[in-house]
Design a protein that fits this description.
By secondary structure, the chain is of the alpha/beta class. Helix content is about 45%, strand content about 15%. Keywords: Hydrolase, Lipid degradation, Lipid metabolism.
């Protein structure tokens, strides 16, 4: 039976290098399996969800080619290269900005100018409605205090839900304390003030599951867990302990940074636990795969773009790949229909 293939990618700032590296490996395996060096991951998924850095990845994977609008513009390799290029620039520490903001104490830690320019360079004037597949990108609307989901399939129905992809990517990753809140406008010129979707769904896989349940696909209408395949990618497992002897006397200032980390990792773990049992109840347990590699020597900080840490993030991803070849082959076998495989 054909299954709806879902890809979900967590938030995590520069740690997005980890899922980007793994997706590049999966795409290479797809090309080997199909015998087509031009095969792209977007050809073999039906729905993509992302939060923050995962939202940027999701949008990039689904961005159409200018020359051939039905095909993906970027390969997974090109997207990984962009993460190295733009991620380092976005989180570059500017001394004048640091002094002006007292190192992020009285204003956002980073200027969003470079961030905006980077998103514009990647996505140009592409609209959400033009993305190749149905998708869901998270953000949080601060004026009405509610979750906001950017979806390609709804954007195709009404301009009220259509936005520039560059704005969607920026809003989804406007992490509090790191970047100022983002105000973007729909195609009908209605504005929305937004912050990072990671404040409520750093792991957007459950949001993806709920959204897919409502949709009609080529092989199945309103699928359940019994006819889904879901790959959920994390940005590295945070294992830094919080010692009671230290945190028991924390005040507001000391708790801000660890609370953000707890919020992100706690949400990711909870969603994974829930989906594991949903797929198990649908007698399809093997079709839910959660990948959350160890960070090993890499920092858990989402803005550490030192050369040493970029290398450590890459090493963590490559170590996972080297130790889990069978798992990755299994993922590819579930993504690529038998008729597309190289005979």
């Amino acid at each position: 039976m054909n299954k709806v293939r879902i890809l979900s990618i967590d938030g995590g700032g520069i740690r997005g290098i980890i899922p980007a590296t793994i997706l590049n490996e999966i795409e290479k395996k797809i090309q080997l399996k199909t015998g087509n060096k031009n095969s792209k991951l977007a050809d073999y998924v039906d729905f993509v969800a992302g939060t923050s850095t995962g939202g940027i990845l999701a949008c990039a994977l689904l961005t159409p080619s200018k020359e051939s609008p039905s095909k993906a513009r970027y390969s997974a390799k090109e997207i990984l290269e962009m993460f190295h290029k733009y991620g380092t620039a976005i989180f570059k520490k500017n001394l004048s900005h640091q002094l002006k903001t007292l190192w992020g104490l009285i204003d956002e830690k980073y200027s969003k100018y470079t961030f905006e320019r980077s998103m514009a360079s990647i996505f140009n004037n592409t609209m959400l409605s033009q993305l190749l597949k149905p998708c869901l990108i998270t953000a949080y609307e601060i004026s009405n205090r509610k979750a906001m989901f950017f979806t390609q399939h709804n954007a195709q129905k009404t301009k009220a839900k259509d936005f520039f992809v560059r704005d969607v990517a920026e809003a989804s990753a406007a992490a509090p304390t790191y970047f100022e809140a983002s105000e973007i406008s729909s195609a009908l010129d209605v504005s929305y003030p937004l912050i990072d979707g990671g404040v409520f769904a750093n792991n957007p896989a459950m949001c993806a599951y709920a959204e897919v349940r409502k949709l009609a696909f080529e092989y199945v209408n309103q699928p359940t867990s019994s006819n889904m395949f879901m790959l959920s990618l994390g940005t590295g497992e945070v294992q830094n302990p919080l010692l009671f002897s230290e945190v028991k006397s924390y005040g507001l200032a000391q708790w801000i940074k660890p609370l953000i980390s707890i919020m992100m990792s706690g949400n990711a773990e909870t969603v994974s636990y829930q989906l594991k049992w949903i797929f198990d109840a649908g007698k399809n347990a093997k079709s839910y795969i959660r990948i959350q590699p160890s960070l090993h020597n890499a920092s858990s900080e989402i803005d550490n773009v030192s050369k040493k840490n970029i290398e450590a993030l890459t090493e963590a991803a490559e170590l996972f790949i080297s130790e889990n070849n069978d798992l990755l082959e299994n993922i590819v076998s579930q993504l690529v229909p038998i008729e597309d495989t190289l005979s």
